[in-house]
Amino acid sequence: MVIDKFTRWIAGLLMAVALSAGAQQASDWPARPVTMVVPYAPGGNTDFLARLTAEWLTRAIGRPFVVENRAGAAGIIAAEYIARQPADGHTLFFATITQVSLAPYLYNIRYDPIKDFVPIANVGGNSLVITVGADKPWKTLGDLVAYAKSNPGKLTVGHAGVGSLSHLSATVFLNRAGIEATMVPYKGGGPALTDMMGGQTDMYSANISEIMPHVRSGKIRFLGVSSEKPIKQLPGVPAIAETYPGHSVETWNGLLGPAGMPAEIVDRLAAEVTKALHSPDLQARLDAVGVVPQTGQVKEAFAQQIQRDMVHWKPVIDRAGIKQQ
């Protein structure tokens, strides 16, 4: 009996010490620059939004938030890295739907998207655009589809990695149109977009924010957007749903941390991102690249969005015939 009481006392003491250390850790945060890991190469949609968010948080919190690109395996390398990091708030993950909601169905992953991460704040969402190089002969989706049907497998489609939204959105479109193509994977949207503009590939399903800087360059032709209706940033570009009813694909980019982060740090980050998304200046910068601020999707609400996406995308992946790697 005495031993049991002593054991319980020791356990209680250790818990009190742990809680005290966690509180102290949270109060001292950030004690050094915060690393924000991006799962893709520089230059793509996710990288752009991460740098915008890091810029805001650096000013708001008073410590540098530094973006680190860890590209490869559609972001799974970065996700596995984050899952192993200390939950002290000094290493964060600027993730996409791919590494979180889609990964369990696409890859043999060594992390649990629900248990190993804590959702902090969804930052921005956007549709995707079917794009081709301006030197290609296709003026409309109909032209592209007609070519692909006459030349099965000859159409080349670049994407940001197997299971990325650029890959899945292109696959959904190809399936709806009933055409075949040769898929070409890249380590992120930036390199995929560059090669499409350079003529190395024919088509790329791009995040709107990726292609907005090139709208007036004359190097890209936009054939259709994956939203249910046309968007104001690309006047005159039809929704894919006008040709293939029901077509709708959208993505998100958000901030997560390793599971076990102190609630005070999560709350602080969520509050600062919320302020950012309500800032007229940041809203204008997002609007200019076709990104919709995901205001209100913090913590539990963001977690619920992740789970809804998991339910939505599993049958899509199954129908697309994409096998777990």
Explain what this protein looks like in three dimensions.
The protein has 325 residues and is an alpha/beta fold. The chain folds into two domains: 32-126 and 251-320, Bordetella uptake gene, domain 1 (D-Maltodextrin-Binding Protein, domain 2, 3-Layer(aba) Sandwich); 127-242, Periplasmic binding protein-like II (D-Maltodextrin-Binding Protein, domain 2), CATH 3.40.190.10. It is built from eleven helices and ten strands. Strands 1, 2, 3, 4, 5, 6, 7, 8, 9 and 10 form a ten-stranded mixed β-sheet that branches. Helix 2 links the parallel strand 1 (34-38) and strand 2. Helix 4 packs across helix 11. The longest helix has 27 residues, at 2-28. It starts with a helix and ends in a 5-residue tail after the last helix. Mean pLDDT is 89; it is low at 1-24.
CATH architecture grouping of the largest domain: 3-Layer(aba) Sandwich
Major beta sheet, specifics? 10 strands, mixed
Here the CATH topology of the largest domain equals D-Maltodextrin-Binding Protein, domain 2
Shape: globular
CATH class type of the largest domain:
Alpha Beta
CATH homology group of the largest domain:
Bordetella uptake gene, domain 1
SSE arrangement:
Layout: H1 2-28, E1 34-38, H2 45-61, E2 65-69, H3 76-83, E3 91-96, H4 97-106, E4 117-133, H5 141-150, E5 156-159, H6 165-177, E6 182-185, H7 189-197, E7 203-207, H8 208-211, E8 220-225, E9 250-258, H9 263-277, H10 280-288, E10 292-293, H11 300-320
Parallel strand pairs: 1-2, 1-3, 5-6, 5-7
Antiparallel strand pairs: 3-9, 4-7, 4-8, 4-9, 4-10
Helix pairs in contact: 2-9, 4-11
